[in-house]
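As practice, study what follows.
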Amino acid sequence: MDVAIINVGNEVVEGDVLNSNAQFLSKKIYDIGHRILFHSICRDNEKDIKLLFEIFSEKADIIIITGGLGPTKDDMTKEVFSSFMNLVLEQNDDVLNDIKEKFRKFNRDMASNNIKQSFVIKDARILFNEKGTAPGFLYEKGNKSYILLPGPPREMEYLFNKYIDEFLNLKISNKIKSQVIKVTGLGESYIESKISDLIENSNVYVATYASLGEVRIKISTNKNESFLDEVRNSIISRFRENIVSFSDEETSKMVCKFLIDNDISITAAESCTGGLLSSKIVENSGVSKIFNGSFITYSDDMKINVLNVKKETLKEFGAVSYEVVNEMLTGLNDKMNTDIAIAITGVAGPNGGSVEKPVGLVYIGIKIFDNIYIIRNNFRGNRTEIRIRTCKKVFNFISQKIVIDNLL
């Protein structure tokens, strides 16, 4: 079915709050198998909200609205919707008692304006909200479904997962099936030129999406899944050496899960990334099984005192060099003796670059079991982007060397 998503809130329109609700809903809905037609955001304004209801009611089968269900005067989504659909708002004792109980539980006085949230849309299904005071609503009329959810992401996600996921799965008649292939080291335009024949395939939709350090190729169909397999295998044959993942999940998470499952230990010594790589490792539950710790050796003194990098090497070649990252890797391996060891040194900018060593020059040393690799990189972007690209390069490289073969 065709879906439209409306996000209501001045804070979203003005950019004070990132519209993560749209991303969450789109991903969930697409994975279920529905088609997203529109995203739209609007202010807490009666005329604007009503206009979007009018437009999307004509064009979509399912309309999902987030925001505007709170207790304040500018929270007006359910009021506008009720007026638009000629429905009645009526106070519900169960909802009111639920709100009162939440305030009692947290030992807080309930403001009088919270009573507004106990008024529900007559004939709509009430979605009780254990994460907040605003209930959601599900209303069906003819072949149209309207879903009203609160704006705070924690509450919206809870109600979606508890009620809406199952509801949307029951609405599937011709499920969209999709697969993802992530590729690194190649530009989006080059990749598209090499799969132009697949893009023209009427049985499968093929699209490319560029991000920092990688390109995501997504293939989808609502026909026989064999079409997907055929296109997937063709893409693999063309980009085998550049594939890092077959999932929308961050490659770092996929790699760390593989390391945990296979008892492969890892450590790092970071200079310009300043602990970013290690933070990506420790995001994963169960990682203590394979990760004892790492070192942030930002200064020359730290490189010397912690990793035994020679003063002479630093003086002759500079901190950002093949020779220094090699000694960092050796010192790290001597200390930690893990299956995988990673050393990083570079110029993240915006200052500190030179003609010989420009901003974006990063050396990465990686030991994987008995093999040692030293990689010279020239990353583009600002300071944050260079640090992110460096970490992605590490996880992509590990994936290419020891993970991808297990997934093919």
